[in-house]
Amino acid sequence: MVIPLGVIGAAGAIYLRGLQNDVYFQVALLTIIGLSSQNAILIVEFAEAAYRRGEDVWTAATEGARLRLRPIIMTSLAFIVGTLPLALSSGAGANSRISIGTGIVGGTLTATVLAIFFVPLFFVIVRRLFPKRPIED
């Protein structure tokens, strides 16, 4: 549910820079899928743990997002700063680096900002649609 947020950001960044949807952009999309999935899994894992402890679904979702906010922000910012030279490169072969870097920077930025808010919301929606609590031993 969170992967389209990163893909939209990557596609928007590529569009704004006037680049094409080439194989290098596809590599950037694979990277965005991995990072946005990882961030969502971290939030849901902590929210699920709080939910299993007996918290209500909304409190569990906000606690999961609150506990994982700093690690997600730090990981995403480090990744963005690490790929920024790709997006701003020049010289021979720069088009491939620019395509990868722009897609990753735009997608990571969008996925991080939006996932912090949407993943807990999706957790609440899914838990309300399927309210069955797991059986504890």
UniProtKB/TrEMBL annotation:
CC per GO annotation: plasma membrane
Annotated TM spans: 23-44, 72-92, 104-126
Keyword Nucleotide-binding tagged: no
Organism ancestry: Bacteria, Pseudomonadati, Pseudomonadota, Gammaproteobacteria, Vibrionales
PANTHER family per UniProt: AMINOGLYCOSIDE EFFLUX PUMP-RELATED (PTHR32063:SF32), PTHR32063
Keywords attached to this entry: Membrane, Transmembrane, Transmembrane helix
Species name: Grimontia celer
Gene Ontology molecular function: xenobiotic transmembrane transporter activity
Protein name: Toluene efflux pump membrane transporter TtgB
